[in-house]
Specification:
The protein is α/β, with parallel strands linked by helices and 121 residues long. The chain has three helices and five strands. The chain has a five-stranded mixed sheet. The longest helix is centred in the middle third of the chain and has 18 residues.
Length: 121
């Protein structure tokens, strides 16, 4: 059974080679109890294309992980080369894995996340 990290690595390397980097963290800034997948993509994305890319990854995560391995709460941060930044919370992926150590919001974290355009998956 693959892990969340395995699915993200596979997605980036095989299914969507335009992705150039990613991060996986248990809680950041104003999302302290969420598992957060941060992605960087080579190119410029409009909102509809960002939604499409994140929905594909969300679907892979939802269909390939067991309920025990799925994050309880999952959010995505996506940034392209032009500085477009998108944030989306997954309401589809709902598992049992909780954030191990919720983080306290860092100073300025709320303002940083305000720079992300919130999109709906």
């Amino acid at each position: 059974m693959p892990s969340l990290l395995d699915i993200i690595e596979e997605y980036i390397s095989w299914k969507s080679p335009a992705f150039i980097g990613f991060g996986l963290s248990d809680g950041i800034g104003m999302l302290p109890t969420w598992t957060v997948v941060s992605l960087s993509i080579n190119g410029v994305l409009d909102e509809s294309r960002a939604v499409e890319k994140l929905q594909q990854l969300e679907n892979d995560i939802d269909t390939r992980l067991s309920v025990e391995e799925k994050p309880r709460r999952l959010a995505f941060l996506l940034e392209d080369n032009s500085g477009n930044m998108y944030m989306a919370k997954s309401w589809r992926v709902q598992g049992k894995r909780r954030v191990t150590t919720p983080v306290l919001p860092a100073p300025g974290a709320e303002e940083e996340l305000e720079n992300y355009r919130k999109i709906r998956l």
